[in-house]
Amino acid sequence: MLKISWVKYTLLLLALLLVFYGVYITVNLELSRGTVIIVAGFGLIILTQFDWGEIKVLGLEAKLRNTINDAETVLESLRNIALPISEISISLAARTGRWDSSTPRNELYSLVNSVSFELKKIGVDESNIDKIKKDWYYYTAFDMCNALAKNALEKLNSHRSILNNNYNKWVGGKPVSDIEKQSELLDPVKKADLEIKKIRSIFEEKDFSKSHHSIQEIIDSSVTLTPDEKAQFWSENQDLWNELVYFINNKKLCRPEFWLNYPK
Q1: SS in 3 state form for 141-175?
Q2: Which residues cross the membrane (predicted)?
């Protein structure tokens, strides 16, 4: 360790301030800049943990004492510090879109990859890296399901509007005398409303690992959409569906360029 304790603790405090400032920058300003600051903080933490011997400036010689033991102690300390900070950084960045300041997908993806890479370099095992990315998994699955549901709702709402207009034209502001005809025109509107409600209710769930199948069942069993419209829907959304299924099963993007550039 650094022998002059006040120097060591001053540097350690500075390092921690850098890390937390990096988290702040990541969430509020720019992911890439914040990541650089966080990594710099980690590097300074490493510097404070070694026991340096004499350094001969002119000869450019340096002697490092107890290198192996110190290095392992440093890495263990760094892992213990890096994991919670990395989780906070990814979690806050993933959630910002829910606070009216959406984080661009490509920047969030870059942050997740950068943090994962840095953690691997200091020996963090894959299972722990996987845990700190749980909010990214959750909100990416949510956003993909939401995109699929949005496309489905556009189809259903369009039909519902037509059906409702037909009913209103038939009523024409007059008292209804033909109950059978009313039921014939109003029932399809109610069925469309029910299908729309079912899709919206999917997002009340906390686990999105099966939500895409719920959307699939609603579309495939829809009485509002015709067989041709169902086929057209799946043709138009096949790439999104494939990306969503792959992500849920593998916890990584199959074609990053597709999802990162998918319209919001």
Answers
A1: HHHHHHHHHHHHHHHHHHHHHHHHHHHHHHHCCCC
A2: 6-27, 34-52
CA distance 217 to 227: 14
Q: For residues 255 and 145, state if they share a domain.
A: yes
pLDDT tens across 89-112, in order? 777 777 765 545 567 888 888 888
Q: Tell me: do 178 and 66 sit in the same domain.
A: no
pLDDT at 35 exceeding the cut of 70: no
- Residues 117, 145 share a domain: no
The predicted structure's pLDDT at residue 102: 62
Residue range(s) defining the domain that contains residue 119: 5-132
pLDDT digits (tens, 9 = 90+) for 133-187: 998 999 899 999 999 999 999 999 999 999 999 999 998 888 888 899 999 999 9
pLDDT at 173: 80
> Based on the structure, what is the number of domains in the chain?
2
